[in-house]
Design a protein that fits this description.
Blueprint (H helix, E strand, L loop, with lengths): L2 E8 L6 H7 L1 H8 L4 E9 L5 E8 L2 H7 L3 H11 L11 E10 L23 E9 L6 H7 L1 H8 L4 E9 L5 E8 L2 H8 L2 H10 L12 E10 L15
Length: about 240
């Protein structure tokens, strides 16, 4: 089962974020080369100064466990600690993915239900939406995100919305990373039929975007836990499994 690691870290000085992430490029590139890694990104949240969003995807809990015992992981921890991280206000979580598929079906319609699964809806399963958009003018990215603030904040008020972030990838100029978390596929489906979703699409359409190379995916998580235990040790395995 695919495992996603997601959450955020806050830093004392927002002014160091871009340079800190660029300096971390060798460590990020190293993690991306590990066997079983699908995605590994650290991106800047322009709406919460000093915040960096973490998103990782691994083919199994075993390969995540291997990563957590590598020099890439240990060196990244040292690198981040040297830039005055704040104490965490909520844990970084790992999610075990039971099913995944594109948000958009073959007719280019966004769907919250899992149309390729045997059961389109499953009660009380967290749904993650993740992917990226590439824009033609990298210099516009902070303004794209900041001008989207009312729409982002509107989505966050919707019933069942747990997280909704649009962040800048400093290692790939012009890229915005999307991360959403919903309490259920029905909550996501309601969002995709709301004016917040339609208005965001219209807003982003006012900026020149490059053709998409990868689809935005949705993931149904059957289990989630903090990646760090009560002693502060990170583990790739799920205790409740």
């Amino acid at each position: 089962m695919t495992v996603i690691v997601a959450g955020f870290i806050d830093f004392e000085d927002p002014g160091v974020i871009a340079d800190m992430l660029r300096a971390a490029k060798p460590l990020i590139d190293g993690a991306l080369q590990e066997d079983g890694n699908i995605a590994y990104s650290w991106t800047e949240d322009h709406l919460t100064p000093g915040r960096v969003w973490v998103y990782e995807e691994w083919i199994s809990s075993d390969v995540l466990e291997t990563h957590l015992n590598t020099d890439w992981y240990r060196n990244m921890g040292v690198h981040l600690a040297s830039h005055n991280m704040k104490p965490p206000i909520q844990p970084i979580l790992r999610y075990r993915i039971e099913h995944q598929e594109p948000v958009y079906d073959e007719s280019a319609t966004a769907r919250g239900n899992f149309f390729t699964a045997d059961e389109a809806h499953k009660a009380d399963m967290t749904v993650i939406v993740a992917g990226y958009f590439d824009f033609a003018n990298p210099a516009e990215i902070p303004d794209v995100i900041k001008s989207s603030r009312p729409l982002i904040e509107g989505a966050l008020t919707e019933e069942g919305c747990i997280a909704y972030s649009w962040t800048e990838d400093h290692l790939i100029p012009g890229r915005i990373f999307v991360y959403e978390e919903w309490a259920s596929s029905k909550a996501l489906d309601a969002h995709l039929n709301s004016h917040w979703y339609r208005d965001m699409g219209a807003h982003l359409g006012t900026f020149e975007r490059k053709p998409m190379t990868e689809p935005i995916l949705k993931y149904r998580a059957d289990l989630q836990e903090p990646i760090y235990d009560e002693t502060g040790v990170a583990s790739g395995h799920f205790k409740e499994a």
